[in-house]
Specification:
Elements lengths: L5 H16 L5 E5 L13 E6 L4 E5 L5 H5 L2 H7 L4 H6 L6 H22 L20 E5 L3 H9 L3 E5 L7 E3 L2 E4 L10 E5 L2 H4 L2 H6 L6 E5 L8 H4 L5 E7 L2 H10 L7 E7 L6 H7 L10
Helix pairs in contact: 1-5
């Protein structure tokens, strides 16, 4: 188990509290993208479906995760599985367990939100409401193409943190580095939600103490935001599924499911916390975690 991830521990603890108040639905099925879509945006995510129809998304293109998820024994062992137990696998180092754990955490989080009547607010834009301006030093964890032009046009300095060595160096209006510690010099940071899956979230966020605006966004951003807000994130945004059945059908058909979801953004200064939301809905959680 990865004992270093306090974010993983926090997410699992919150879901354990929620499950103690009311058991989570068990797993119904895992829906994978079709093999011919894997080189496109239509093939990046799987959907874990719970018995109440709730879906949780997870990125499947890290290493050979997609192939492992497609193995017969994995599918056979998921129907009827304990969702909370599956979610606990997110704290492990094994990529397969972590991916299934992320999907289970995202599905469980949406289930919990639905139970207490919380609907995530709509996103104002596609770049985490970063509002780049002259004088800003913007850090990007992952290369967000649409943001680059807006930042440089506004006169902001841009440093991109990447894992790919072939991208390192000075580019037109921005610089790419492998050194995440350079985020310490940035006053605004946009972070891909893939850090939640690849095990780097705690480390990356630990370098962002100077950032007054720290947005984490991406389709895989579907978990309860409380632990992330506790680690400095100021905006958490992902895809709020509006028609779960249509998403499943789109995945099966190899089609885009984006029309069946909307972009959302939960802002730290507007979010009261899971315990307060649950209490307002008449649900008492066993503990009140930060």
């Amino acid at each position: 188990m990865n004992h270093r991830s306090t974010i993983a521990a926090g997410l699992i603890a919150l879901l354990e509290d929620a499950a103690a108040a009311a058991p989570l639905p068990r797993v119904r099925a895992l829906h994978l993208p079709r093999p011919e879509t894997l080189d496109t945006r239509r093939g990046e995510f799987c959907a874990l479906e719970l018995e109440d129809g709730t879906l949780g998304l997870a990125f499947v293109l890290l290493g050979d995760t997609w192939a492992q998820l497609g193995a017969r024994q994995v599918h056979a062992g998921l129907a009827g599985a304990d969702t909370l137990q599956l979610a606990r696998g997110y704290a492990h180092d094994n990529a397969l367990e972590r991916t299934l754990g992320m999907a289970a955490i995202n599905a469980s989080s949406r289930c919990v939100f639905d139970r207490i009547g919380y609907v995530a607010p709509a996103s104002a834009d596609s770049i985490g409401e970063l509002d780049p301006r002259a004088g800003d030093h913007v850090g990007m964890v992952g290369l967000f193409g649409p943001l680059l032009g807006r930042c440089t046009a506004a006169g902001a300095r841009v440093t991109v943190i990447e894992l790919r060595e072939d991208l390192v160096g000075e580019h037109d209006g921005y610089r790419v580095t492998l050194d995440a510690s350079e985020l310490a010099a940035c006053n605004k940071v946009l972070c891909t939600s893939s850090v939640l899956l690849n095990g780097t979230a705690d480390s990356i966020l630990g370098h962002c103490s100077r950032a007054t605006h720290l947005a984490m966004i991406g389709p895989g951003a579907g978990c309860l935001p409380d632990p992330l807000f506790g680690h400095g994130v100021t905006l958490f945004g992902g895809s709020w599924i509006t028609d779960a059945r249509a998403v499943v059908e789109a995945l099966r058909a190899g089609e885009s499911w984006s029309a069946h979801a909307r972009k959302y953004a939960i802002r730290r200064d507007e979010y009261p916390g899971l315990a307060s939301l649950a209490a307002a809905a008449g649900v008492a959680l066993p503990t009140d975690r930060p």
